[in-house]
Protein 1
Amino acid sequence: MKILIVNKFLHPNGGSETYIFRIGEQLTAMGHEVQYFGMEHEGRIVGNRVESYTSDMDFHSGKIGRLLYPFQIIYSAEAAKKIRRVLDDFEPDAVHLNNFNFQLTPSILYAIRRYRRETGRNTRIVFTAHDSQLVCPNHLMQRYITGERCTECIGGSPWNCAKYKCIHGSFARSLLGSVEAWIYRRLKTYRLIDVAICPSKFLQDKLDACPQLKGKTVVMHNFVEKPQRAYEKDTDKPYVLYFGRYSAEKGIATLLRVCRKLEDINFVFAGNGPLEAEVKTLPNITDVGFQSGEELKELIGKALFSVFPSECNENCPFAVMEALTYGTPVIGAKIGGVPELIREDGNGLLFESGDEAQLESAIRRLWDDTVTRKRLTAGCRGTSFDRIEDYCKKLLVYYGQAE
């Protein structure tokens, strides 16, 4: 098959980029032809044969004119024109959309529909929802100023985004987000998507609030790489691991308050972010900074257990999946798609997100109770997530390949 993968960033930038690179590599290894469409960037590492990309636009750094900003995030004539060049040359069997709002805009959906109509090709449009962007203008289901979780735009009025200044605390930007959501709801634009892949049942429920997507959503938890070797728990210098971003929405402030109370427990933090200075102040925390590759795998595998204290609506966090895959139980916040991954008292423990007392109790329990910890560690072996090969086989069915 020929698959065109679409994502606004075509350089290493975050989780969605890791996702598109890995599935592209695997599909190619399985004998399929893959090309990419998105923004041009000096760090771009994938592309298409006709070298057709949109201009690099960064709405945070001001690399786009202020007068063009409102129009560019709602409809991009450039994106529609550039993707048509790729479609005409590549003639894909399927277009796999990922993050496309703001920089590429849903204008590309209309370009694909026009291509299908004019050529008679039944090019499938498959979308992977990495967040709630299609139903929540700020894509986080969280109010920027207060940090309060919010789903008022989902199934409700998109003007709530402007009301609560949900996009970076800016009324102007939030208003544009509301306008974009309102326009594409009125136009029923997302009806053009054939299949919407949701990495969690939690996110599927949110996307199903969009009448144009209901009935087209499917749940496919993210894939996880199989460990190359087993890791023994470090019993000489035992530690509890947190790895991820050091930021308020990830529950770091709550976790730090708990760490102060558990002075006899050793914690290792691997990551970076705005609360890095606070992390470094606690004597029972060893901050090893951002880690990746074998170093991170070893940290995960040797930890007695890990903590995932997020206070935002997580989708299908790799941090939880990776820990369980490497045989490390997880104490996770009962939020978003996290409870779909952690079996209470099976491969980890759950606590109410933001509840400091519950988190402290769970950490103390697993640190002191060797029997329970070993049982949960053994329970991780029964945790099964798709490997990349199996995941891509499922994708091919949604692309239109016969089983």
Protein 2
Amino acid sequence: MGKPATLPCVAGIGLRAPHYREVLDTLPPLGWVEVHNENFFGGGAALHTLLKVREHYPVSLHGVGMGLASGDPLNPEHLTALRELCEAIQPAAISEHLCWNSVNGLVANDLLPFPYTRESLAHVARRIQQVQEKLGRSLLVENLSSYLSFSNSEMTEGEFLAELTRRTGCGILFDVENLYVNVRNLGVDAEAFIRAIPHEAVREYHLAGYSVRDGCLVDTHNFPVYPEVWALYEYVLQQIGPRPTLIEWDSDIPALSVLMAEADKAQQRMNAGHD
């Protein structure tokens, strides 16, 4: 399986290009940072900047393009680029979404859902094992925000994730906001999801803000964390316990101070669980 995730159990932020220079110039007190893998595959100035950041903060690599559930074979160039990035950065964790994104060589720039069947489980488990063998590292798999469900699913997403961890030794990146989106959009039972996943496999949490479009919650990562998501996060902390927690903000990116204030809110809630 390879190296496990070793993030510090504190709050961090998603580091995006608008804040690179400020972070390196001021070295603010950040617990850790997460970046998207694909932004650094080309090397050059972007990778040079990330290497500088890595001198001061733990870095988590978060993938958005692998498509663990896709029917197409895993892209060998993508995997090689990711392995080289891991070797350069020595990340504290590496994660991917539980989704598909390609068919017959055509790649969709999206994180697409699939039915939770025994066939899908065997397929995704094989691919996770291939990735972990290639990287020599344990992978964290993230639960998905979704806008439809499949009538032929044979298990819930939580049950699917639980069996994935058993078969592959992978960990879980528990996106609390994604779960809340699914509760509102699809009627998912949040408590049942939390009971289903093995708590010891949860290595990281994500928090973000969603948009509302025609009554549907959309996982856009362009608002502060909503009170309802904070409340769910507090419940998760009670049930599972503190884990490294990330504030995601990927569009309409605010000042760095805003992200740090959101991370501080998460840290306060993590600390309250130990009082």
